[in-house]
Write a structure and sequence with these properties.
heterodimer, A: 110 residues, mainly beta, 6-stranded mixed beta sheet, 5-stranded antiparallel beta sheet, 0% helix, B: 112 residues, 7-stranded mixed beta sheet, globular
């Protein structure tokens, strides 16, 4: 059974820092991996989707990498801002069977 | 910007009542999903659909049912609500080609 783990569970950093969020999964036979942001009490917003054939995707200050063979993905956030404070979730797609991690709760202090 | 809507946003209801959570999207997506999320926990897929008249159960055992009579509409029904159904329910949709999932704002259900 696919398991998705996110480390750390919570992270607090001062504004301006570059940071890395980690996601690991047990079954490398994935179709794609997606990173989401969730604000308290809200739905999820898609940040980046990496297909299984890709190594990384970039959007603005965000860069996500994928290493299927080792079952790992990282989300890199450059020059963090207080508005980046949220919970970040990764999800792996196994042919429409989406498995989510529990998320990393990020706080960026002004 | 994603156009996917859920109603109601909040619902408090007594045990034994029948409820329907509504989900609509205006993007013409074929795929739609229902997830359940408890506070601070991961999302669990409870139902999904590939298109009209297609419904499948997800990995989380659920006492709910869904229907997909129109592309844009994917309601979830609980025939008899129980306190164990208290949770947040999230609806999502995606295109076949991109797989990027767009989420609604969620319905927070409390069963007393």
């Amino acid at each position: 059974k696919q398991e998705v783990t996110q480390i750390p569970a919570a992270l607090s950093v001062p504004e301006g820092e570059n940071l890395v969020l980690n996601c690991s999964f047990t079954d490398s036979a994935i179709y794609n991996l997606q990173w989401f942001r969730q604000d308290p009490g809200k739905g999820l917003t898609s940040l980046l989707l990496i297909q299984s054939s890709q190594r990384e995707q970039t959007s603005g200050r965000l860069n996500a990498s994928l290493d299927k063979s080792s079952g790992r993905s990282t989300l890199y956030i450059a020059a963090s801002q207080p508005g980046d404070s949220a919970t970040y979730l990764c999800a792996v797609n196994l042919n429409n069977d989406m498995r989510f991690g529990a998320g990393t709760r990020l706080t960026v202090k002004p | 910007e994603a156009d996917i809507y859920q109603t109601p946003r909040y619902l408090v209801i007594g045990t034994g009542k029948k409820i329907t959570l509504e989900c609509s999207q205006t993007m013409g997506h074929d795929k739609m999903y229902w997830y359940q999320q408890d506070p601070g926990m991961e999302l669990h897929l409870i139902h999904y659909s590939y298109g009209v008249n297609s419904t499948e159960k997800g990995d989380l055992s659920s006492e709910s049912t869904v229907s997909r009579i129109r592309t844009e509409h994917f309601p979830l029904t609980l025939e008899s609500a129980r306190p164990s159904h208290t949770s947040q329910y999230l609806c999502a949709s995606s295109e076949f080609t991109t797989d990027t999932q767009y989420f609604g704002p969620g319905t927070r259900l409390t069963v007393l």
